[in-house]
Design a protein that fits this description.
Elements lengths: L1 H22 L10 H19 L4 H19 L3 H48 L1 H17 L5 H12 L5 H16 L6 H17 L17 E6 L6 H14 L4 E6 L4 H14 L2 E3 L7 H14 L4 E6 L7 H18 L5 E7 L4 H13 L4 E5 L9 H9 L3 E5 L7 E3 L2 H8 L6 H4 L1
Parallel strand pairs: 1-4, 1-5, 2-3, 2-4, 5-6, 6-7
Antiparallel strand pairs: 7-8
Helix pairs in contact: 2-3, 2-4, 3-4, 4-15, 5-6, 6-7, 7-8, 7-14, 8-15, 9-10, 11-12, 13-14
The structure holds guanosine-5'-triphosphate and magnesium ion (MG).
C-alpha cells in the first residue's frame, strides 16, 4: 500500500512538473510550431511595409520587392494562414506597387528635357563658327548704331547676302523686316533679333521640317531610303550614323552598297555595317547599282527588315550620264518595292555654301528629292546656307551633321536650331 501511495505521489509530482514547464513557453522549439513561425514572419512584413508608404516610392517599391520572396515562402505551409494574411498584405503592398507607376512619368519628363537641352548644347557647339561669322557681324552692326532705320536694314541685308543665305532669301527676309519697321514693330535691337529669329523659324518650319523626317514609320516594311549627293559630302558617313540610330531603336537595317564605282566605297560601307551590326548587300565591282539596290530590297523583304538604306556614288552634277543612272536606281527600287521609295535623302555639305543651293536644284530636276541632310556644320561659318536651301527649294531638312562621330547626326528641329544659331554671347559658356 505504502509502495502504491509512493508511486501515485511520484506520478502526481511528475505531472505537476511537466505542466509547469509547458505553460512557461519553453517548448516552441517543437517542429510543429513552424507554421506559426511563418505567420509571424509575414506579419512584421506587413507592419513594416506600412510606414514605408511615407518613404520615397522607389525605396518602398524596392523594399516591398525584397519582402515578397520571404513572404511567399512563409505562406507555403498553411493555406489558412495565407488567407488570413492576404488582406493586410494587400493593404501594405498597395502603396508600394502603385506609387512607382505614378513616379514613372516624373522620371520620363526630365529625360526628355535633358535630351532637348543636350541637343541644343551640341548644336550650339556645332554652330559656333557660323555664329562667329554672320551672327557676330550682325551684333557688330548693333554695337555701332543704336537707331533702327532703313540704313541699318540695308546693312543687315549685306551681312545676310555675304553669309551664304543667298540673295533671294536675304531679300525676302529684308522685305519682311521693312514691313515690321513700318508697323513700328522694330523699336530696338532686341526686337530686330527677335524678328530675325522668327523669320528663320518661319523659313525652316515651312516645309514641315519638324515633323520627324525619315523617322516617320514607313508606309510598309522595308522603308527604303536612297541617299544621294555629290562626291565627299558625307553620304556614306550619314548612312552609318542613320543605321546606328535605327538599330538602337530596335529596327533591323540592311545597307545597300550602291556606290559601285569605287571598291573603297563598298569597303567603307562594310566597315559601318560591322560597326553598327547590320548586313551589307553588295555587287561585283562596277556592278549595276540599280541591281544592287534591287537585291537589297529583295533580301530585306525575305528577312523582314525594317529599313534599306542605299548608298549611291558621288555624282558630279555636271555629268548628265550619272544623273541618268540615278534615275535608273530610283526606278529599280520602285520596281522591287511596287511603290515609291520612302525617302530620297539629298546630302549637302554646308562648307560648300551657295554651291549647295545649286546642287539641290540639279538633283531636284533629276529625281524626287524628299529631304535634306546638311553635313559638316561644325567648323564652317557658312551654316546660314540652310536658310537659302530650304527657302529656295521648299525641301525639309531632316538631319544635320555636326561632327564625324556616330552621335553627331542630329534629327533636325527648327526651334532648337534657331535657338542655337542665334545664341547670345552670354550663352557661349553653355556651349563650351
Ligand atoms: N566634320 C564633319 N565631317 C563630316 C561630317 N559628315 C561627314 N564628314 C566627313 O566627310 C568626309 C567624307 O565623308 P563620306 O561619308 O565618305 O562622303 P561621301 O559623300 O560618301 O563621299 P564619296 O563616297 O566619295 O562620294 C569623311 O571624312 C567624313 O568623316 C560632319 O557632319 N562633320
Ligand atoms: Mg561614299
Amino acid at each position: 500500500m505504502a509502495i502504491a501511495l509512493a508511486i501515485l505521489f511520484a506520478a502526481v509530482v511528475a505531472w505537476l512538473f511537466l505542466k509547469g514547464k509547458s505553460s512557461s513557453g519553453e517548448l516552441p522549439e517543437s517542429p510543429a510550431k513552424k507554421p506559426g513561425e511563418g505567420t509571424s514572419a509575414v506579419k512584421p512584413a506587413a507592419s513594416e511595409a506600412r510606414p514605408k508608404a511615407d518613404a520615397k516610392p522607389a525605396e518602398a517599391a524596392k523594399k516591398a520587392e525584397a519582402k515578397k520572396a520571404p513572404k511567399a515562402e512563409a505562406k507555403k505551409p498553411s493555406p489558412a494562414d495565407e488567407a488570413a494574411q492576404e488582406a493586410p498584405e494587400e493593404e501594405a503592398e498597395a502603396p508600394a506597387e502603385e506609387e512607382p507607376a505614378a513616379e514613372a512619368p516624373a522620371e520620363a519628363e526630365p529625360a526628355a528635357r535633358e535630351a532637348s537641352e543636350e541637343d541644343v548644347k551640341a548644336l550650339k557647339k556645332g554652330l559656333a563658327s557660323t555664329r562667329g561669322g554672320f551672327i557676330a557681324r550682325l551684333a557688330k552692326l548693333f554695337g555701332k548704331k543704336k537707331e533702327i532705320d532703313p540704313e541699318l536694314l540695308d546693312e543687315i541685308q549685306e551681312v545676310l547676302i555675304t553669309a551664304d543665305i543667298g540673295v533671294k532669301t536675304s531679300e525676302r527676309i529684308l522685305e519682311r523686316l521693312k514691313t515690321r519697321m513700318d508697323n513700328d514693330q522694330l523699336g530696338d535691337e532686341d526686337q530686330v533679333w527677335e524678328a530675325l529669329r522668327e523669320e528663320a523659324r518661319g523659313i525652316l518650319e515651312a516645309p514641315g521640317t519638324t515633323s520627324g523626317g525619315v523617322y516617320r514609320a514607313p508606309s510598309e516594311s522595308p522603308g527604303v531610303i536612297l541617299v544621294v549627293g555629290v562626291n565627299g559630302v558625307g553620304k556614306t558617313t550619314t548612312i552609318g550614323k542613320l543605321a546606328s540610330r535605327f538599330q538602337e531603336n530596335g529596327k533591323k537595317v540592311i545597307l545597300a552598297a550602291g556606290d559601285t564605282f569605287r571598291a573603297a566605297a563598298v569597303l567603307q560601307l562594310e566597315v559601318w555595317g560591322r560597326r553598327v551590326g547590320c548586313d551589307v548587300v553588295k555587287g561585283k565591282e562596277r556592278a549595276d547599282p540599280a541591281s544592287v539596290i534591287f537585291d537589297a530590297i529583295k533580301k530585306a523583304r525575305e528577312e523582314d527588315a525594317d529599313y534599306v538604306i542605299a548608298d549611291t556614288a558621288g555624282r558630279l552634277h555636271t555629268k548628265t550620264n550619272l544623273m541618268e543612272e540615278l534615275k535608273k536606281v530610283v526606278r529599280s527600287a520602285e520596281k522591287a518595292l511596287e511603290r515609291p521609295v520612302d525617302e530620297i535623302l539629298l546630302v549637302l555639305d554646308s562648307t560648300t555654301g551657295q554651291n549647295a543651293i545649286q546642287q539641290a536644284q540639279l538633283f531636284k530636276d533629276a529625281i524626287e528629292v524628299s529631304g535634306i541632310a546638311l553635313t559638316k556644320l561644325d567648323g564652317t561659318a557658312k551654316g546660314g546656307v540652310i536658310l537659302g536651301i530650304v527657302d529656295e527649294h521648299g525641301l525639309p531638312v531632316h538631319f544635320v551633321g555636326i561632327g564625324e562621330r556616330v552621335e553627331d547626326l542630329r534629327e533636325f528641329d527648327a526651334p532648337s536650331f534657331v535657338e542655337a544659331l542665334f545664341a547670345k554671347p552670354d550663352d557661349e559658356t553653355l556651349a563650351a
